[in-house]
Specification:
Radius of gyration: 15 Å
Pfam families: Acetyltransf_3
Mean pLDDT: 97
CATH superfamily: Gcn5-related N-acetyltransferase (GNAT)
Number of helices: 4
CATH class: Alpha Beta
InterPro entries: Acyl_CoA_acyltransferase, GNAT_dom, N-acetyltransferase
Oligomer: single chain
Number of domains: 1
Strand content: 15-25%
CATH topology: Aminopeptidase
Largest sheet: 5 strands, antiparallel
GO molecular function, one term: acyltransferase activity, transferring groups other than amino-acyl groups
Structural class: alpha+beta
Distance between the termini: 26 Å
Low-confidence stretches: none
Protein name: GNAT family N-acetyltransferase
Shape: globular
């Protein structure tokens, strides 16, 4: 089942998504706030996991395409973090887009839809989003889609070494409005 916004389609992954997704995951600019860029095999394995999640659960990190052109522009959706922290277990809203898709409001549009889908359609009591303290672009998306931040929730990512400049993370939350 495809999900649609005014300009975007959130859908299941296709084999044709693999090459542009791998290029995006190899970009030092796109992956600036991640510990490492992905190899092609790591990127393909990520696609396999995301597609299996959507097949099994009916939701996950969907491939994102422009409705007008069919161009693949990354992913947006919901996932379950695989680490232990004070706010887990939980569901996270996340996104990753190539640089050419930045600055058009696509991440906010798709993330807002995914957030509403999780809260309204799936009936989740809360959805979180988190990123490195230095990733102000993603924090701006979190703010634009109506998530709230309490500095007391911020945390050191347990999968990153204490010497990593990416270890400090901010946490944003969203709950149903009614």
């Amino acid at each position: 089942m495809d999900l649609r916004t005014d300009r975007l389609i959130l859908r299941q992954w296709r084999d044709g998504d693999r090459e542009p997704f791998a290029a995006m995951n190899a970009s030092p600019v796109v992956m600036e706030h991640f510990p490492a860029r992905m190899t092609r095999s790591e990127s393909d394995a990520f696609v396999d996991r995301m597609a299996a999640r959507i097949d099994g659960e009916g939701w996950g990190l969907w491939a994102l395409e422009l409705a007008a052109t069919g161009e693949f522009i990354g992913f947006t959706g919901l996932s379950v973090p695989s680490f232990d922290a004070h706010f887990t277990p939980t569901v996270e809203v996340g996104w990753r887009l190539p640089v050419r898709a930045w600055g058009h409001g696509y991440a906010s549009e798709a993330a807002r839809y995914a957030l509403a889908y999780g809260l309204d359609e799936l009936g989740l009591e809360e959805i979180v989003s988190f990123t490195t303290r230095t990733n102000v672009r993603s924090q701006a998306v979190m703010q634009r889609i109506g998530m709230t931040h309490d500095p007391a929730d911020d945390f050191d990512h347990p999968n990153l070494d204490s010497s990593s400049p990416l270890r400090e993370h901010v946490l944003y939350r969203a709950r149903p409005t009614s």
